[in-house]
Amino acid sequence: MKDVSEVLLVIDVQNDFMPGGALAVAHGNEVVPVINRLARDFSHVVLTQDWHPASHVSFAANHAGRQPFETIALPYGEQVLWPVHCVQGTEGAALHRDLDVPHARALIRKGHHEQVDSYSAFVEADRGTPTGLAGYLREHGVKRVWCCGLATDYCVAWSALDARAAGFEVVLIEDACRAIDLNGSLDAAWRDLRAAGVERVQSAGIAI
Ligand code: VGL
Ligand code: ZN
Q: Which among 86, 148, 155, 177 is annotated as catalytic?
């Protein structure tokens, strides 16, 4: 897509989401070659990084007696408690070393507020604090956001839904994503995505 109105949004392709990582997504590493190939066809690529302080509210370790993958009630709603992951400046938070997108123009870091999580690249989990990505894309004349990365049912889905809510056309490239799938989260995500008008495609079917 040399067309400036198209952007490829590459979400959280970070070591901690890879097999062996702190919050491993099964087969997460398999998205890397798919995304490298896709990115060559987009002149405009934006990356995101999950980027938490060690004291982050989403870490089970910061709640006495709580275990990873339990949920708790926070002022902004229900929060899944995760293993400690993507701590700012750590190797686990770094992008996968084989991700090859030297022409990426912007990098959005999210989840940096201690008391608020942010699966979405657009709006934090309090549903009120914007990251600035929507404004950035609008200023660049972007009309359509192509989403890929990790994880399908969390950060990719929430980003895709918020991109729709911000008025963009949105496409989710299924084989350029992998899911966590916790308690039916993947089915629920696809239901929400379809209802919101997010288009579901495979990378091989994208006409350049
Ligand atoms: C993510 C859970 C916690 C993701 C980030 O990138 O999908 N999931 N933090
Ligand atoms: Zn996170």
A: 155
Whose alpha carbon is nearest atom 4 of ligand 1? Answer: 155
169, part of any domain: yes
Domains in the chain, number = 1
Looking at the domain assignment, is residue 193 inside a domain? yes
Q: For 176-193, what is each residue's pLDDT tens digit?
A: 999 999 999 999 999 999
Q: Is there a domain that residue 85 lies in?
A: no
Q: Cα 20–23–27 angle (5° rounding)?
A: 55
Q: Could you tell me the CATH number of the domain that includes residue 22?
A: 3.40.50.850
110 is catalytic: yes
* Cα(191)–Cα(58) distance, integer angstroms: 25
Domain enclosing residue 123, as ranges: 6-53+92-205
- pTM equals 0.97
pLDDT tens by residue, 1-36: 668 899 999 999 999 999 999 999 999 999 999 999
- 89 CA distance to ligand 2 middle (Å): 14
Size of the chain, expressed as the number of residues it contains? 208
Domain-located, residue 70: no
Concatenate the DSSP letters of all residues of 135-155 into one string. Answer: HHHHHTT--EEEEEEE-IIII
